[in-house]
Amino acid sequence: MKLYTGTKNSPFALDVELDGSSLHYSARSVMQSEFVGDPNKIHPNGANYFDQSLVLEWRGDFGVYGEPVYQRTINLEALRQHPEFGDHASFMLYAPVGIVERLEVNRALFTQTPNLYAMTLASKTDAQAYHATVIQCHPLGHILVPLRSSPTSEWTIGFNVFDPVLIKGTGGIVVVPSTTLAVVRDETLPVVRFMVGEAAVVPAGGELTVNFRLETADGAPITGREAEVYLESTAGYLVARRVQTVNGEGSTTFRPDGLSPGERVKIKCGFKYFSGTDDYVVTVA
User: Fold this and answer.
1) CATH entry 2.30.130.10 includes domain 191-284
2) Which residues face 191 on adjacent strands?
3) Across residues 199-210, what is the average pLDDT?
4) How far apart are CA 88 and CA 86, in angstroms?
5) Does an H or E element contain 159, and which?
6) CATH 2.60.40.10 spans which residues of the chain?
7) Is pLDDT above 60 for 103?
8) What is the pLDDT of residues 215-260, one digit of tens each?
9) Cα 223 to Cα 59, 190, 193, 229, 247, distances in angstroms
């Protein structure tokens, strides 16, 4: 399983292990090498050096010490029973490490795994603003589920760390450095795209077949997995607004009921908790 890293948070070591469908992660304290040495000597900043005998291992320029300050185990298969489980999902992970001490954070958050897109569906707030203003705690990481039908082997995980060197993954974990977890979500989760160009014309009193398909973020069609696609229109009538794909594709019928020649309608497609991944403009002739 791929583990993407975002460069955020104060320094701490993170151990991540995948055992079947069980994901376990734990955080430990670290000390930068320039502050490690003989504890009987004084560092130029005026404090004693951190005792080098307490360092259990080195990860880059950081000495790891002590027992885990936080740890958690999540059963990935059990996550399918989550009330917000679905297509294009990002389940957020929170922990009492790397957070701003002056902020009062609800500690119950550290045992929860909410779907980011379900939390922000109504407000359409981006993740950065949502965590800064509503949650007041930025996430340690996330679990990305491409589609409801995707096996856990196609899921990915991500963690915010000060430096990717501080992460150690075992059990088939492959660490992939990235810039931010927001970029990872944008570049790895699937979308729904219309297959009929950007615009179309439909005669008044007629109807139009609207085709769409599942795609990767870079535009490659997805044929081996299925999803429930949600559609909406600014006017007119859609025969089906929720469509289950077959071989990654689906369609619905649009009728310009109540519209006059020259009027334009926008049709959108997406997922239950992540709407509007593509637009389609229809003009009534």
Assistant:
1) no
2) 215
3) 93
4) 7
5) strand 156-161
6) 191-284
7) no
8) 999 999 999 999 999 999 999 999 999 999 999 999 999 999 999 9
9) 42, 12, 13, 14, 5
